[in-house]
Request: fold
Amino acid sequence: ALRCALAGLLAVALLLESDTVAVIGLVSASSAVGGVFLPALRSAPGVLLSEEDRPRGNSLMEVSNSTSMLVGALAGGMTVAFVGPVPAVGFNAAGFAVGALCAALMKHRSAFGGTTASTDGMAGLVREGLAFVRRTGWLRTLLLIDATLDLVTAGQLSVGLPAISRQLTGASSLGLMIAGFGAGSLMGALLASRLPRIPFLPLRRIHPLRRVYLLQLLAAPFLGVLPLSTLPVATVCLVVAGVLNAIASVHYVSIIQRNVDSAVLGRVMALLVAAGLSVQPLGQILCGVLIEGGWLRESFAAGALVMVLVCALGLTRRNLRELAH
Reply:
């Protein structure tokens, strides 16, 4: 309901041609509200489902997100291209309103009774989460790698893709490219839970976390060549990157759920999300500065190189191999 209200206010601000500061403030507030719920969404399958069903649950969550990206990007891109941004944001607000109504109609079920709460309130929860990080070496490594990958990809996808689209056909090409990534993510999410069951696939014999970083490493070149590509080639590259990223994401979340007690799972997920979100603005600003300086191709090539190096670090770290499969 809150995101519906913020999206509605954003549509009004665009309609009235409000100043940039007001628009940025509304977008930031909406992103902050979405970030609050992301750790809960990632934690839910680990608490609600058995260990055997968690990969399928995580795949289903990824399918939902990917479908939204696919349909929303196509509809939004075409709406902006032919009608303008105000109706597109208005449709976004309507979507949040439908989601809020569905949530209100759901029957309440208490399924988190097994978790423990700190007697010190929110500050105590934060201290417990940070203490868990300090005594867990593999988690510190994950936080570092995750934050670095988010630093790179946030700028490429949110700043770089619009810059590439301006060289092509504008908003419609941006919508098509994002939809391609969403379509790939949807395919990857559907494949993710079945991947370990495919007998002839070499990936099934690799430790799941090393599999995650190998998939991310394979995705890096497809992102790096985007500024050099035509619209069809860029869309295909994003489809492939979406497949690889979605499979990696499902396995990544499943591994954390398997290795973290449900009592602290929400706090660990919150820290991982916070590590990524905290560096995304820096990555977006850096990418924007590089693009304004005429370094669009170089920014994507450098981002791909950083992804390769960071994923190589994940593949070689001994403490990550100690995690349960």
